[in-house]
Amino acid sequence: MTFSEQLPAEDLTGLESALYEALNPLAAALRARTTGQPEKHLWHGEPVDIALSVLAAWKVVDQEVKRLTAVAAGTAGSYGASYEQLGAVWGITRQGARKKWPDAVSRPAAGATALSLFGGRAELTPSDGAWTWTATAADGTRADEAAAPTKEEAAALAGAFLKEHAR
């Protein structure tokens, strides 16, 4: 079940009203640009032209919503969300989420190792003869680009960090 299926009807009605209220100025501006008429004359003219102006405005909104959705998916992925989680929120499969937002979840680099401990996650990556690690702990604390001379030491440091910031 998606979040919108969980919303009460009055919340969906309120959302629809807010969207129409936000859309009208955009539709008026687009219509003014294409017809040369003042924005206040949005509702004057042939019904088909008015309807097409509204449709054009919805297209602009749709494109921006898709862009912002991809940003939100990428943000969730950067905090450790998986494609399975993204798909569940969107009401699609893990594979569907991966196809929809291919860059939302970062994949470990070749030779990299992922650790999941104490409710958090760390990535260990080889780098110029040493190992770097980044982590997001269960309490949301992040550690970025700490270095260690060996993979084992990087794992130990990352594990200690995740334990320290467990809930």
Question: Can I get a quick summary?
Answer:
This protein is an alpha+beta fold and 167 residues long. It has helices spanning 3-6, 9-35, 47-78, 83-90, 94-100, 151-164; strands at 113-117, 120-127, 130-136, 142-148.
Give an overview of the whole structure:
The chain is of the alpha+beta class. The chain has two domains: 3-100, no CATH class; 113-164, no CATH class. It contains six helices and four strands; from the N terminus they run αααααββββα. Strands 1-2-3-4 form a four-stranded antiparallel beta sheet, with helices on one face. The protein is elongated, with a radius of gyration of 24 Å. The model has no long low-confidence stretch (mean pLDDT 86).
List the helices and strands and how they pair.
Blueprint: H1 3-6, H2 9-35, H3 47-78, H4 83-90, H5 94-100, E1 113-117, E2 120-127, E3 130-136, E4 142-148, H6 151-164
Antiparallel strand pairs: 1-2, 2-3, 3-4
Helix pairs in contact: 2-3, 4-5
